[in-house]
Amino acid sequence: VLGLSKDASHEEIKKAYRQRALQLHPDKNPGNEDAKAKFQLLQKVYGILGDEEKRKVYDETGSTDDDDLAGAGFDGLVDYFRAMFAIKTEDIDDFTARYQGSADERSDLLRYYNQFRGRMEVVFDHLMCSDPVLDSHRLRDILEGAIEAGEIQRFKPYTAWAKSVASRPRP
């Protein structure tokens, strides 16, 4: 519509919009329905590309608004929501950095430990952002502290697991 490349600057978009708007404006083309429709499309395009946030969403998703969902089948909706709510590796890394060592992680760990009666392989299956190889020593330290403080009881499956972890070097 504007005849620009995808990486056009804000100033280039603004300049191209003004030039096209002068050509297509309804006052310059009275009674020309085609020019009117093109002008309305131009307005919509500039409304998206001229706004930094809307342009960012458009560049990432190719979507301009909810009208894109009209008549979309299930697969289309799945694709739309995957694009709109895309999770990137750095998002997961950021969340992991905030979660590990937090009060929420400790609370979840103690809850799963009690729920699964010390079966740590099941605890690891349920505890977010945990890896048996990388986190065993750290989680063992938390659980030992909670046991010593009387917050939780020592379960037999945990005792065997903790002994195994203690015999390995920390990662």
UniProtKB/TrEMBL annotation:
This is Molecular chaperone. PROSITE patterns: DNAJ_2 (PS50076). Signal peptide: none annotated. InterPro entries: AtJ6-like, DnaJ_domain, HTH_DNAJC9, J_dom_sf. Residues 1-62 form the J domain. The lineage of its organism: Eukaryota, Viridiplantae, Chlorophyta, core chlorophytes, Chlorophyceae. It holds the Pfam family HTH_DNAJC9. The gene is dnj13. CDD domains: DnaJ (cd06257). Gene3D superfamilies: DnaJ domain.
